[in-house]
UniProtKB/TrEMBL annotation:
Keyword Oxidoreductase belongs to the record: yes
Pfam families named among the record's database cross-references: Bac_luciferase
Domain of life of the native organism: Bacteria
GO MF entries: monooxygenase activity; oxidoreductase activity, acting on paired donors, with incorporation or reduction of molecular oxygen
Protein name: Luciferase
Domain Luciferase-like residues, every copy: 10-315
One GO CC term on file: cytosol
Gene3D superfamilies according to UniProt: Luciferase-like domain (3.20.20.30)
UniProt keywords, alphabetically: Monooxygenase, Oxidoreductase
SUPFAM superfamilies attached to this UniProt entry: Bacterial luciferase-like
Signal peptide extent: none
């Protein structure tokens, strides 16, 4: 087992703010109610001692949040200590100047708690919405990341690229409270993305939604090798894991409760992607089995899964997505409370 770094192992939650029907009632709550519940979830996570709260970005009517920085700024005033991150910012179609300035503003409001998790996103609606071409998918991401990192380093920036106007000694204001905003890269499954995160010395966030955790270890190895070869220290190379999570006092109870919501979630997500598949209970049982990466079960079961992954990756952050598929907010709160009062203390003891 790898050694936990001085700042310890962080446990938090994130939401993509999906707006799906409750599978038991067929009712879908309003965007206003969903937004209020997201803020309440962040307040509870902060009060219960969790370390990080993340909010995703989408540009669709079946998701509530298109601007994580705005939502996180509201959360900043409702919380005291929890770190506030995007999950993710769709960097390919965001103006890096606007992105930096928005999160620097959040950093001021929150007194130094802002982070950016930059990624490509799961959908492509933002490309035509903001006047970009999907044929430039990779070039856009690379160019925008290059500029974002320069903005994070310097108050005045000169820069020239292909997709936006050049900057000539441009003043980038406001500046973050932190010397630099922590920036993580979301990595799905490509070695190239893992190597880039390592070369740049950025944190790498792995979205692990199922399957055997072992299949992600090569990405972690590539990330760390690239980072060390680029001259970064091992302390700079942080790995985070994100994943769907549902907790109950027993694993069987957790599976019985979660299956309708999890099946419902993938049903409407697959429809959004043009597919009509629905998850059977047998498929769910396999997805939730002890050797897989789906974090559903008793606190002990979930801790075992996180510890196994820590033995593989040496990661220092775990973020749980606890509100998918139309789960009622009262049950979301139970997830947060079990994560904070049972999973986090057991993890600290196991990884100490």
């Amino acid at each position: 087992m790898s050694i936990i770094k001085q700042n310890g192992f962080e446990v938090g939650i994130y939401t993509l703010a999906d707006l799906g029907p409750n599978p038991h009632t067929g009712n879908t709550i309003s965007a206003k109610q969903r937004m209020g519940e997201i803020i309440e979830a962040a307040k509870l996570a902060d009060e219960m001692g969790l370390d990080v709260f993340g909010v995703g970005e989408h540009h669709r009517l079946d998701y509530v949040v298109s601007s994580p920085a705005v939502v996180l700024s509201a959360i900043a005033y409702a919380t005291n200590r929890i770190k506030l991150t995007s999950a993710t910012s769709v960097l390919s179609t965001l103006d890096p100047v606007r992105l930096y300035e928005d999160f620097a503003t959040l950093d001021i409001i929150s007194d130094g708690r802002a982070e950016i998790l930059a990624g490509r996103g799961a959908f492509i609606e933002s490309f035509p919405l903001f006047g970009y071409n999907t044929n430039d998918y990779n070039e856009l991401f690379s160019e925008h990341l290059d500029l974002l990192l320069k903005l994070n380093e310097k108050k005045k920036v000169s820069w020239n690229g292909k997709f936006r106007s050049a900057l000539r000694d441009a003043e980038i204001s406001p500046r973050a409270v932190q010397k630099q905003l922590p920036i993580w890269l979301g990595v799905g499954g490509t070695p190239e993305s893992a190597a880039r995160a390592g070369r740049l010395g950025l944190g790498m966030a792995l979205a692990i939604l199922g399957g055997d955790p072992l299949r992600f270890k090569p990405l972690v190895d590539i990330y760390r090798q690239a980072g060390l070869e680029a001259g970064h220290t091992s302390e700079q190379l942080n790995v985070g894991v994100t994943g769907h999570t549902f907790l109950a006092q027993t694993t069987e109870k957790a599976k019985d409760e979660f299956y309708p919501y999890y099946s419902n979630y993938w049903n409407y997500v697959n429809r959004q992607r043009g597919m009509g598949t629905k998850m059977s209970r047998d498929d769910f049982e396999y997805a939730a089995s002890p050797q897989t990466a789906l974090f559903v079960g008793s606190p002990e079961q979930v801790v075992e899964k996180i510890v196994r992954q820590h033995e593989l990756y040496g990661h220092t952050r775990f973020l749980a997505q606890v509100d998918i598929g139309g789960i009622p907010f009262e049950r979301v709160k139970e997830n947060i409370e079990l994560l904070a009062t049972e999973v986090k203390p057991m993890l600290e003891k196991a990884l100490r």
